[in-house]
TrEMBL record, chains A, B:
It comes from the Bacteria. CDD domains: HTH_LacI, PBP1_LacI_sugar_binding-like. Residues 4-57 form the HTH lacI-type domain. This is LacI family DNA-binding transcriptional regulator. SUPFAM superfamilies: lambda repressor-like DNA-binding domains, Periplasmic binding protein-like I. One of its GO terms (molecular function) is DNA binding. Keywords: DNA-binding, Transcription, Transcription regulation. InterPro entries: HTH_LacI (IPR000843), LacI/GalR-like_sensor (IPR046335), Lambda_DNA-bd_dom_sf (IPR010982), Peripla_BP_I (IPR028082).
DNA sequence: GTGAAAGCGCTAACAA
DNA sequence: TTGTTAGCGCTTTCAC
C-alpha cells in the first residue's frame, strides 16, 4: 500500500515536510513549489495516510451507519442513500448491522462514535433514555426515529397513515383492520396514535414486523368483518397476502390490503401492493447532510413527506 | 463522548500508559493489574482510537466491502455475513455501493485499498483484466466471482444448476427454458457453460438480472413449448411469475418455475419459489476469514456448496 | 511486571 | 513563502 510518506516526497522535492503538506492540502505555498511538489507526489504515487491526518485534524473523513438488519429492504435502501451521498462528498461509511441486538447497538455506537466524524443511527426500538445516554447529540443523527434532544430525519408517518385510511374509506370500506407492529417500536406507536382515533379502524394484535408476522395475522384478520387490512409494513402485508391466498381469499375482491414503506417488494407481490411510500434513500442522504452540517442545525427534526402508491391490492369492498 | 484516552485510564488506575496498553491488548501484565485496568476502562467508557493504533501497528482494524447494489437482497445478505463476522473479530467494515458503476468501483477499490487492511469485492461484471490491475492480490478477496490470481469465495454454481435441472427432469420435464443473465456477468457465464450441454434445455435470450428482466421474459417463455423455466436468479424468476400470472398461466400446473440464489423473497412469492440456495451470509464470513488469513492461503479459491430448495413453484409437467 | 521514552505519518503553530 | 518543532493517541522497545 501507500509506503511513500511526506518525508519521501519532501526529500525528493528538496523541501520540508510542512511545505509538502501545505502544497498538497491547499496551504500557502508559491505556485512553483506547489507544482513541483505535486508532480513529485504523483510520480512517487504518494497517498496520504488518512489515519495520521485524522489523528491531528480531529476529523476522520468517515462516518458510521448503524442499522438493525441489512436484509430488511427498508434499511438496505436507507444504507444505499447514505453511501451514495457519502461518495459524493468524499466520506467513507462504516456500516454496522446490529442484528436487532441492543447490546450490539450500544457497542457499535461507542466504537463508531469514537472513530468517525458522526453516526447515523437507525434504532426503531431502543428506549429514548438509552439512546440519549449512548449517543452524542452533536455527532448523531437518528434516522426514522424521533427522540427529543437528538437530531433526526423521519418520514411523515401520520400523514401517510391518514392517506392510506382516506384511500380505503373513499373506496367504500367502513371496517378496516389494522395489524400493528411491535409496541416498543417508535414507528408502531406513531401509527397507532393516528389510528386510535379513527372509528372505521379495528385494531388487531401487534405482530413481528416481518413476513412471518404477517402470515400469523392472516387468520385473525379473517375472523373480523373487515373488508380491508392496513398492515404495519410491506413485509407484514406480504405475509398477509400469502396467508390469504392460502385460505382462498381473493385480494382485493374479498378484502383489500395496504402496506407501508413501499419497499421494492411491494411492486413485485401478487397482487402488487398498495403502500405508503417513505423516502428511504432520501432519508439517508438528508441525514448525512444534517450530520455534516450542510443543512439544518444540530437538534433539528427533519420530516420527509410520504405518499400513497395505489396498486392492485386495494379496491372497492365486496358488495 | 470518546474523549477518554489511555492517559485518562492510566491516571485513574494509577499506572503508566504502557501498562494500560498492555492490559488492554493482551500484553504481559499481572492478573490483578489487568483486571483493575479493564474495570477502569469500562467504567470510563474508554474506546481505543483506531487511527492512532493503526498508525503504529500498521493495521487499521478496518476492512472494506464493495458491492454493486445494496438493495439487491443477494448483496444485502452477503454484507450481513461480512458485518456479522467482522463484529466477532472486532473489525470495522467500510461499505461502498458502486451502483453498478465500474468507475465508482475503481475509486472505491483505490480509496479502500489504502485505508483498510483488506477489501472484499463483489464485482459480477468487471473484466478480469480490470480487476487484476486494480486489486492487490495480497489484500483483496473476490466474492462470488473467480479470477485467476486473486483469492475468491464462490458458490458451486455448476452443481446448483445441475441440481435444478435434475429436479425438473426427475419431475418429468423434457423441455426446460433457461432465461439467462447478462453476458458480461461471470455468474451468468458459469450457468450457461453447464446448461449448454443439456439437451432438455432451451436457451432463451439473456435479460437484466432484475424483476423487470423477468417480466420481459414472460412472453418469450410462453412462445416456447417449455413446461418449465429456469431463471437466472430469483429476481428474474419473480418477474416471470408475475407476468405469467398476468397472462393467466398457472404455476406450477401449466409451467414450473425455478429460481437461483434463494434470497428471502423466494419464500414469500406466490407460489413460493423453488430455488438453488447459495450460502450468501456464509460467503461473507468465509471471505472475511480468508482475507484476514484465518483460513486458507492467499490466492485460494474457496467453493461453497449449493443446494436445491424445493417449494411450490415446481411440479410435474401438465399431462 | 512495570515505567519512561521513542516514535508511527501527518498537520499546525510558531519562527524566520 | 518556507522550515522547525510540537504533538495527535497509541504501541513498543528498552531499561529497571
Amino acid at each position: 500500500m501507500g509506503r511513500t510518506t511526506v518525508q519521501d516526497v519532501a526529500r525528493e522535492a528538496g523541501v520540508s515536510v510542512s511545505t509538502v503538506s501545505r502544497a498538497l492540502t491547499g496551504g500557502t505555498v508559491s505556485a512553483s513549489t506547489r507544482e513541483a511538489v505535486q508532480a513529485i507526489a504523483a510520480r512517487l504515487g504518494y497517498q496520504p495516510n488518512r489515519a495520521a491526518r485524522g489523528l491531528i485534524t480531529g476529523r476522520t473523513g468517515n462516518l458510521g451507519l448503524i442499522v438493525p438488519d441489512l436484509r430488511n429492504p427498508f434499511f438496505a435502501e436507507v444504507a444505499k442513500g447514505v453511501t451514495a451521498r457519502a461518495r459524493a462528498v468524499d466520506y467513507g461509511v462504516f456500516i454496522a448491522d446490529t442484528d436487532e441486538d441492543p447490546v450490539a447497538e450500544r457497542e457499535a455506537l461507542a466504537s463508531l462514535g469514537r472513530n468517525t466524524d458522526g453516526v447515523l443511527l437507525c434504532s426503531p426500538r431502543s428506549p429514548d433514555a438509552d439512546l440519549l445516554k449512548a449517543a452524542d447529540p452533536a455527532t448523531t443523527v437518528l434516522l426514522h426515529r424521533r427522540v427529543p434532544g437528538l437530531s433526526s430525519v423521519v418520514a411523515d408517518i401520520s400523514d401517510g397513515i391518514r392517506q392510506a385510511v382516506r384511500h380505503l374509506i373513499a373506496l367504500g370500506h367502513r371496517r378496516i383492520a389494522y395489524v400493528g407492529g411491535p409496541e416498543d417500536s417508535w414507528a408502531a406507536r406513531q401509527r397507532l396514535a393516528v389510528l386510535s382515533g379513527v372509528p372505521e379502524v379495528l385494531l388487531l394484535d401487534a405482530v413481528a414486523p416481518t413476513f412471518e408476522g404477517g402470515l400469523g395475522a392472516g387468520d385473525p384478520v379473517l375472523a373480523t368483518p373487515a373488508t380491508a387490512v392496513l398492515a404495519y409494513n410491506d413485509l407484514v402485508a406480504l405475509g398477509l397476502l400469502h396467508r390469504l391466498a392460502a385460505r382462498g381469499v381473493a385480494v382485493p375482491e374479498r378484502i383489500s390490503v395496504v402496506g407501508f414503506d413501499d419497499v421494492s417488494l411491494a411492486a413485485m407481490s401478487h397482487p402488487p401492493l398498495t403502500s405508503v411510500a417513505v423516502p428511504k434513500h432520501r432519508s439517508g442522504s438528508v441525514g448525512l447532510d444534517l450530520l455534516l452540517g450542510r443543512t439544518g442545525a444540530p437538534g433539528d427534526q427533519m420530516i420527509l413527506p410520504t405518499s400513497l402508491v395505489v396498486r392492485a391490492s386495494s379496491d372497492v369492498p365486496p358488495s
